[in-house]
Specification:
single chain, alpha/beta, six-stranded parallel beta sheet, 11 helices
């Protein structure tokens, strides 16, 4: 049975729907290093700091690449740039770790009876592989990802999740404006983590609660 404990307690939410990259997985450095390698190969200006990266990053990723100066007339994003980035990222992400407090927060929410789902803009098999690498394959009730590596966004995936769980009272937790947009698209609340891929300034424009540490989510739910 889903959320029996929470239903008995009449809690506001039954489900926590997590973003992965930048929220549960601290892979910012891996993302920067991968794209900087691509930029350097093409003689383009590289990203100098995490702050600069957070100010530039956005969804869909093709728009982020346009900000960085990639010329799509010379190189196709889908056929050339996206596969190149994935290959470089997979080399670099091996040095990434879970976000501080992630394991403790997941365990606490599980003990409280929340159903926890992972919903990501990462290609699904790549995502499952990362979860296995991190020993998190059994952590979530469901894992939802994309059927491609283009990172165009996950609103469609979220709508499919909502169709499968129409009665879930969901809170989405992510680190980007797009995570807020996804929550809006399925009628869910959202909390945004400020230590991920976008700046606090960008996230604050969404008007939803912000947290600086994942542990703070527990207090918000109390």
């Amino acid at each position: 049975m889903r959320n029996g404990l929470l239903l008995e307690k009449n809690m506001k939410y039954t489900d926590i729907v997590w973003d992965f990259n930048g929220t549960l997985l601290d892979d910012i450095r891996a993302g920067i290093d991968a794209v900087n390698d691509m930029l350097a190969r093409r003689g383009l200006s590289t990203i100098d700091s995490v702050e600069q990266y957070r100010a530039l990053f956005c969804f869909p990723i093709i728009e982020y690449y346009a900000k960085l100066g990639f010329d799509f007339e010379k190189e196709d994003y889908y056929a050339v740039l996206a596969p190149e980035w994935v290959a470089l990222y997979m080399e670099n992400y091996k040095y990434s770790t879970l976000t501080p407090g992630a394991e403790r927060t997941l365990q606490t929410l599980a003990a409280l009876g929340y159903t926890q789902t992972l919903l990501s803009a990462t290609e699904i098999e790549m995502l499952r592989g990362q979860l296995r690498d991190l020993g998190m394959g059994e952590r979530f009730a469901e894992v939802w990802g994309l059927d491609n590596i283009h990172a165009g966004g996950k609103i469609g995936t979220a709508r499919a999740w909502r169709e499968a769980h129409p009665d879930a009272k969901a809170l989405f937790v992510g680190d980007s404006v797009h995570d807020w947009e996804v929550a809006q698209a399925v009628g869910a609340d959202c909390v945004l983590y400020c230590g991920g891929h976008q700046s606090r300034e960008q996230l604050s424009a969404c008007g939803c609660p912000l947290i600086d540490h994942l542990d703070e989510l527990i207090d918000l739910l109390a």
